[in-house]
# Entry
Amino acid sequence: MMKKLTPLYNWLTVLLNLLLVYILYMVTRVAFIWENWQRFAPTWDALNMGDILMGSLRFDTSAILYSNALWIVLVLLPLHLKEKPWWHTLCKTIFVTFNMICLSANLIDSVYLQYSGRRTTWSFFSEFSNEGNLASIFFVEAGRHWYLVLLGAVMLAALILLYVKPKGTVPKPLWRYYLVQTLALAAAVPLSVAGMRGGFTVAIRPITISNAESAIVLNTPFSVIRTIGKKAYVDPQYMPDADMERLYSPLHTPQPTDSLTMQKKNVVVLIVESFARENIGYYNRTLDGGTYRGYTPFVDSLLEHSLTWEHTFANGQKSIDAMPAILSSIPMFVEPFILTDASLNDIGGLARCLGDEGYTTAFYHGAENGSMGFQAFARASGFQHYYGRTEYNADTRFNGDADFDGTWAIWDEPFLQYYALGMSQLQEPFMTAVFTASSHHPFALPDQYRDTFPEGTVPIHRCIGYTDHALRRFFKTASQQPWYNNTIFVLTADHTNQTAHDEYRTSLGYFSVPILIFDPSGQLPRGMQDGVAQQIDIMPTLLSILGYGQPYIAFGKDLLGDNGRWAVNYSNGFYQYVEGDNLLLFDGEHVTGMYNYAEDTLLKDNTAGAEPELEENLVQRLKAIIQSYMQRMTQNRLMAGK
# Structure
């Protein structure tokens, strides 16, 4: 016969089991740090371990209470059902299932962080909702990271074997049992709510991702839960609109230009998957004591004849951030633009502006039509034609699905040939863009090239070499087409990926992508220019080069005409604002960091507060950008005249 226990024993059951979960969360955090040590090592010395520990407990508390709320209520309910074995089986099943899902999410993010650059949020499920290859990718990574699978199995066993089961006997007298249990449950509710919010006072706002000092502090369940159904865009009302407009406006109003005198040059934009600046020797002549050569001999040679800038940055960390930034001058703030309600706004961009001037516009991507939402965005931003895997397979000049990489898309080499030849069938002038795919996880190569390109130090390096080869062949074919000399080429990456040097493992380094403009006719200046360039500058710069004369909205600047050396991006709850040699980190309310990134390349010397006047000027300009962005997103004013 079971011993009679006081009702307060159920409190002890709750505490002991939640303590087990806390320990396992910390184990997954250690695994997260270990798996991504190269990312965190450069800034590890600057982190305050006490703050990291306390912050981790705070975010873990929130996630654990969210995911265990149902179980806590069931265990504390004053019911006679506690005497039934099936009731305890139900409670244990809920406890083990919910917590194992959360712990698995932490382990999976240990790997996915290398590709996403941030903790996973709810938008992940929208981003990959139309992809059918996730299962194969998951199993490939599970094989590569078998030790994390083993750790997950150990944690599952711990949840099952170490679970503390409440005793089933209901003590007498019943009135005391019901009274105590009701009071216990009543106390659990406000305590749990306080834990979920991150504090016990009414004045405390619920903690969000932006409250985290580092991705280390966060956990994936919290990041997902706290972004479910959240509005990405809210006007922060930092300042009166007149002050905002004085400091910053995305409305570009070129001097009126006779459309007959506008240069009707073709425009070709190459968005190259994961083609980080780090991999290109031209940009990194001082790395490794001056011996670093990179993995892109062709792009190195192209840069010798192109226009580029001293510091060049992406405005997002995912593929779906790249199209809005590069083609419509819309950066990623808070959540990927494509996944928010604002994507239903009227959208401008290169395709729409040039299409209105008589250009033929087309977008090319070798994946399944509809993948990643690219086709939908291309249509919304004004592209007249879309050429994907379906159209490639229908072209009898090529090998169809025999050229499919087995995971994502058509291999870069044949698809870029298809792209080059396809443009010869378009009526000039044309504006086109292509999004490549091969330099992407799982970092495979066509069979004939398995032993061709340098291994490098991380798996992506061989793929970068292959894509560089594909670009060489593309430009060779393009140079033989009648439209070549009347074309402006732009090459950039969607985002970065695996890194091998500490300089590129900082919060800013992870946004370092190439941006080059190549004009075969030689009309544009060439060589490395002083200044800061970002993806959202590509659209206004190209429109300026062409002599486009109509007003338009672009959040970036004209790199050849506007004054101002600045760039902005958003990562893990922080805005990063670059101006000159200064980097400002801002969480939406407070400055959290200030660095001279040009000299302090590892971002170890946080000088926040040292130069208050300079810092305040940077903050005000950044606030004006954020406020303008949020207002236009929420008010559907992404087109001139709105």
Observations:
- Residues 9-225 form one domain.
- Residues 1-8 have pLDDT under 50 and may be disordered.
- Residues 540 and 611 are 32 Å apart (CA to CA).
- The first helix runs from residue 9 to 35.
